Amino acid sequence: MGSKVSIGDVVSLSQGFAVNSKSKHLMGDSGLPLLRITDLINGTEAQYLTKETAPTKCIAQKHEIIFTRTGQVGLVFRGREGVVHNNCFKVIPNEDLVTHDYIYWTLKQPHIIKLANSVASGSVQKDLNHSAFKSIDIDLIPKTVQEQNCQILNRIEEKLILNTQINQTLEQMAQVLFKSWFVDFDPVIDNALDAGSDIPEVFESRVERRKAVRESADFKPLPDDVRRLFPSEFEESESGWVPKGWETSTAGQELTVKGGSTPSTKNPDFWDGGNINWTSPKDLSDNDTKIMFETSRKITDAGLAKITSGLLPRETVLMSSRAPVGYLALTKIPVAINQGYIAIPESRRLSQEYILYWLDSQMDMIKGLSGGTTFAEISKKTFKSISILVPPCPIVEAFSKNVEVYLNKISSNVGESSLLATVQSSLLPKLISGELEIIRSGK
Fold it and tell me: What SUPFAM superfamilies would the database entry show (predicted)?
């Protein structure tokens, strides 16, 4: 076990860059990204300063720790390079006493985040000044123990990051496959080129791109059994040229569309002690994948009785229909929904995987159809009018078979990450306080 010290005894702080009328002229279209809180959370870049104009003390290297101090107090980041915004500061360890890893993990502890918010000033918008931050008490353990204990936390974090990256790659692979088969019609164009069939002029640019792909050294054609599922000709339909034998329909004709509601939150009979999953789009706002495993709130049987759509089955496709439009998920649990969703528990001729990635591919158009004065919303009536392409069942089944592999791996990774995050949360305070000490075995 270690001792208690004020964090100001072992770190110094470097304030971020203030963007105002006097400094705005330093901003540019390229250079070092300005790291605002929203950029740190979302991994985005929107504004820049050149290396020549950015104050050196505000520049963060990848190993440096950034702590948010205004608005959202207590978020901790590392691994980003750029110019720290004024709503954050860099936390610079005294390396004679503490390691970067130890301070990073110390600040990640929930009770430290809670303390930071409690000493921040402001009722409308929290603001944490340097003096208040430095007054926070932390554990201090020997530096050799810091190094050993933090290795465990770092390895868990690295695995969590790797799982997220793998899931993002798998998600992109599913999106690319849908676009190739059902938007660009690559297999149909391949078959048409091989058969010498006429290809409509509207596809001229796609044909040229496809010829270049087919001539590249790393081109891998579809397996013969899959390729034979696709036609080698196009035909004209009401919505334009489509592969021969494919149909155009509407969401209302093909999909079962459900809405939901919120049982009165003033009636505890609907909520207290409930064990039935109930979801609002908020559950998807922080979701890294298109898979739903759990909901933040539960309702009782009495609450469920107030929702006309009832309990929807596993493998229901969910799309948030307002505030904002466009979150997507495939449920792996039975779930009841609130009024912020359009739910698709089943369809006439299409698979749930096809529906999920059809929605993803059409999202810009769906958002464009959304109305509303206070916030964007797409009604079930408008949604049902949207045109949808219906390929033959064997092609849909072949697509789903491929995508199921990706989604199953994503599900496995999410489960592993959930377990690792639980272990990490349990170990964190014990490793930082020195209650647990990792002993290296000798060789």
Answer: DNA methylase specificity domain (SSF116734)
Tokens of 431: 């490793």
Given pLDDT bands bounded at 50, 70 and 90, which one contains residue 23? confident
How does pLDDT run across 179-235, given as a tens digit for each residue? Answer: 999 999 999 999 999 999 999 999 999 999 999 999 999 999 999 999 999 999 999
What would be the CATH architecture of the domain defined by 250-390? Alpha-Beta Complex (3.90)
**Could you tell me the residue ranges of all domains in the chain?**
3-140, 161-244+394-417, 250-390
CA distance 159 to 399: 30
Q: For the domain 3-140, what is the CATH code?
A: 3.90.220.20
Q: Please check the confidence at residue 22 and state whether its pLDDT lies above 70.
A: yes
Confidence (pTM): 0.89
Residue 441: is its pLDDT beyond 60?
no
Say how far apart CA 224 and CA 86 lie, in whole Å: 58
